[in-house]
Design a protein that fits this description.
2 copies of one chain form a homodimer.
Chain A (H helix, E strand, L loop, with lengths): L16 H13 L3 H12 L5 H8 L3 H13 L3 E6 L2 E6 L2 H16 L9
Chain A binds a DNA duplex through helix 4.
Chain lengths: ~120, ~120
DNA sequence: CTTCTAATACACTGATTCATGTAATAGACA
DNA sequence: TGTCTATTACATGAATCAGTGTATTAGAAG
């Protein structure tokens, strides 16, 4: 969890559009309450399948499937079929780390505003 | 930058909608290439005003002002007027930490996909 | 083969976002 | 005061996103 940057962010040249876009894309994964809850559920539960996750977040199967599909496409999740059930797991440690960091921030200070709008 | 969570994320109950929303709102701040570049510029430059930032990211003043306004409303930035110029600075260390973390992730591994779409 | 269930694919809709253009505000300076 | 500059406010339009409903696929079980 420690993070020694080779280059001090204060000293490197300004972020280019491409690099900033990649970074923003990474954060975008966690910029949705539904995805945050799903990813947290994936960290918490033991080898859940789609319907487990849908039940956990109390949402319709299609909505959950939509989000899981996106996360798979982005390489964040991986799937594994067992009979009729498809199980998901996180394969991108970046996302876990960032979510962990976010939970940490949220733990000891209440954010001023709830939503970003 | 170290982050010892009091409660292990694997053991806490599932994130509620409100808490997940707050967390997602935090990540949303960094989920835009423009905002990432602006925040990085704010970390890099010395007491920049709006037009400095607009020049740095090569965007129109209005677009930059829109984003800065949002960041101010969210409590991420603070402003200080000096004559005709309005200067901005980051007052929310969470965001700096997260951006730092993101830069770190981006440094030693190329993300698979560029955008989230 | 038939039927049932789990999950996904697809089209659709309402909401949101971002940059733009125009107009208005705030201060500097003559 | 009048004017210039820097910045913001507001409305507009294109693009994107999230969730819903319907239809379809993949496998299990009779």
């Amino acid at each position: 969890m420690t993070c020694p940057l080779k280059t001090d962010p204060e000293q490197r040249p300004l972020l280019g559009l491409a690099e900033a876009g990649e970074l923003a894309g990474l954060f975008e994964v966690l910029a949705s309450a539904t995805r945050v809850r799903l990813l947290h559920a994936l960290m918490t539960m033991d080898d859940p399948c789609m319907s487990d996750l849908a039940a956990a977040v109390e949402m319709k199967a299609q909505a959950v499937s939509n989000q899981l599909r996106k996360l798979v496409d982005l390489g964040v999740l991986d799937t594994c079929r067992h009979g009729n059930h498809i199980h998901y797991r996180i394969v991108e440690p970046c996302v876990t780390n960032l979510l962990h960091q976010g939970l940490c921030i949220n733990e000891d200070q209440v954010l001023r505003k709830v939503g970003y709008s």
